[in-house]
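Researcher: We plan to redesign the surface later, but first we want a full-length starting point. Tokens attached.
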């Protein structure tokens, strides 16, 4: 039964996380599936992983999964949907496989580093991220540039050339960075990280392509009839399918590889807590500016390894960072979407009220993280899953499909797709809870 749980729990966790990420979007939204799958892997490990190791896997998974958020894929999906010439559908699926593979491959690589017992230090991780940022810059210039539409686009291009605004791509940079990271891990002798990378490459590539095939089939064939179709969100089916297959692949790799390695090594020389707290505060200030879309701070996300270098190093070499990233940071990056939806888009509450609620909630989550630092991996997994699901339910209640602007009258018939999506999220959370209870973890 453990073998089934080892695959099913990470699959369910990442499937839920990816569905939630689709509500909030962008690089920071991708932290949610990364955190959930990292915690789920910690739960199903055969080795005894303490709270520190579990939180490190969750925090590192969150930051690593955010790296792929720089990639655009809406127009790539458009190729598969047949919005252009029919022969581009296979090209679109190839593009999704390339993008999905590197996305989950990077996530697996860093989670493996956090769990493999090789003892990566703060300075080593910071230096590594800096080198990977340079490799990504070179890869983008080699494979994804020039981007000067409509006359000059890359030769290998997985977005819509005939779109009025063809999107810039970044997958080449991530692939070159991942290739460099794999070489480094092999030299370092980190077999777990290398193995999880390979499983992530396969699971992510197949997951994104298969998930889109399901979406295209559902949208074009209306398999359950027109009445059910009005309640379906096939884009969400694609996102959840991507997460399920990617998480299952990481779970399978973890099942086969994890027992061969020793426990994750603790930080050799943890930073003084005051200094670490100051560094986390500085990074959080940048994150707030980036989430608000403020100029240069927001554009740093285009260089993902630069954006995560400091917190990634602290997640490996610090004592405060793992719990801080899993709790208040995830609340911040999801909660700001809820605030914008209610205060800016739907105008259901005044902006100052919504932002004040979030400003109070984040320190409260920080205090919770401090008190919960010794909780088990299963408790952290449930806290994160239910907390993020609650945020997406609140977000959905602020959409125009549910509420008429300026009123508090629900319009359920106009929000059929959202009702279905939120019901699926709640069912997935209940399944996670039941599996953890059944397993005794």
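Model: Full-length starting sequence:
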């Amino acid at each position: 039964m453990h073998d089934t749980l080892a695959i099913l729990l990470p699959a369910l966790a990442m499937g839920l996380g990816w569905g939630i990420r689709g509500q909030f979007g962008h690089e920071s939204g991708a932290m949610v599936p990364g955190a959930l799958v990292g915690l789920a892997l910690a739960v199903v490990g055969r080795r005894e992983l303490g709270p520190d190791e579990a939180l490190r896997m969750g925090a590192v998974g969150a930051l690593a999964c955010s790296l792929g958020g720089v990639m655009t894929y809406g127009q790539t999906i458009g190729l598969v949907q047949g919005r252009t010439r029919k022969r581009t559908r296979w090209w679109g699926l190839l593009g999704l496989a390339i993008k999905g593979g590197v996305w989950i491959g990077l996530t697996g690589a860093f989670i493996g580093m956090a769990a493999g017992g090789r003892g990566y230090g703060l300075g080593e991780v910071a230096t590594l991220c800096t080198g990977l940022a340079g490799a990504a810059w070179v890869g983008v210039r080699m494979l994804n540039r020039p981007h000067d539409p409509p006359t000059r686009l890359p030769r290998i291009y997985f977005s819509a050339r005939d779109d009025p605004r063809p999107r810039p791509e970044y997958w080449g940079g991530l692939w070159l960075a991942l290739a460099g990271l794999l070489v480094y891990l092999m030299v370092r002798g980190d077999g777990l990280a290398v193995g999880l990378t390979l499983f992530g490459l396969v699971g992510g590539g197949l997951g994104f392509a298969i998930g889109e095939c399901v979406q295209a089939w559902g949208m074009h064939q209306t398999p359950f009839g027109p009445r059910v179709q009005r309640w379906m969100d096939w884009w969400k089916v694609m996102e959840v399918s991507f997460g399920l297959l990617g998480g299952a692949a990481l779970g399978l790799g973890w099942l086969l590889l994890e027992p061969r390695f020793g426990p994750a090594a603790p930080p050799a020389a943890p930073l003084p807590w005051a200094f670490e707290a100051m560094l986390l505060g500085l990074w959080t200030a940048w994150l707030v500016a980036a989430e608000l879309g403020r100029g240069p701070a927001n554009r740093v996300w285009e260089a993902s390894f630069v954006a995560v270098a400091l917190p990634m190093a602290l997640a490996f070499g610090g004592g405060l960072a793992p719990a801080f990233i899993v709790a208040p940071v995830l609340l911040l990056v999801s909660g700001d979407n809820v605030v914008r939806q209610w205060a800016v888009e739907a105008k259901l509450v005044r902006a100052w009220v919504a932002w004040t609620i979030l400003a109070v909630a984040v320190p409260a989550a920080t205090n919770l993280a401090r008190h919960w630092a010794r909780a088990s991996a299963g408790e952290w997994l449930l806290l994160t899953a239910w907390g993020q699901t609650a945020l997406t339910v609140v977000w959905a209640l602020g959409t125009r499909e549910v509420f008429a602007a300026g009123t508090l009258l629900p319009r359920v018939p106009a929000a059929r797709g959202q009702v279905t999506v939120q019901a699926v999220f709640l069912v997935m959370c209940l399944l996670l809870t039941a599996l953890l209870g059944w397993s005794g973890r």
